[in-house]
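User: Here's a chain of 244 residues. Predict its fold as tokens.
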Amino acid sequence: MKKQNFFQVKNITETKAELYIYGDIVSDEWGKWADSDVCPTDVINALKTVSGKDLDIYINSCGGSVFAGIAIYNMLKRQKGRKTVRIDSIAGSIASVIAMAGDEIFMYKNSFMVIHKPVSFAEGNAEDMRKCADELDKIQDIIQGIYDTKLKDEIDLNTIIDMINNETWLTAEDTAKYFNINVLEENKAAAHIKTAETYKNIPENAKGIFWPENNLEDEFEEFRDDLEDESIKEMRLRCELLSM
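Assistant: Prediction complete.
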């Protein structure tokens, strides 16, 4: 079965194009478990087709790989042309960092931004554990620096650090109190997404954006037969160094 290409550049004109990031952020093709997953190679190939054009970037993603997300952020930042980001439903974790690449950011009233500490796992002795913790602290410093570029002048970065440390879900109106974003009326057509397991503090009014559990099972069954080597893909996913 041929996979559907959810990641697309659409409506290309002489001066403008639309880019849709509508899935989890993964490191490479091997890490993809869903047709909607996005890796840096997808983005760099797409940007080659719209060099120099203004971009409307639509985001509906819970996040994923930290390093892949930072790579995508940097790709978008160096893209010539004006970048306008619209958060259609959720920009969670590293997807919220990607959103900061926009010269202008819009959120619908019923959309969310989620910020929290980077997470990983470690195996080995005490020194291995300390090294992993130190690496996570460095990653968080980088992420905080990116958030700082979009903070309102009167907001202290320490306020955002506290939110990161406590996994904070921000509505559009909440986000606008801290970041330079624009709030739009509700987007009635916001799509569902599949990854809820990353988060601990999902508010009741946000749970509707995730697919029900039985739909996740149906989705897995639909393309498990398409996986070239399921055991290798599972190993790659579990061994992802850092994810958000």
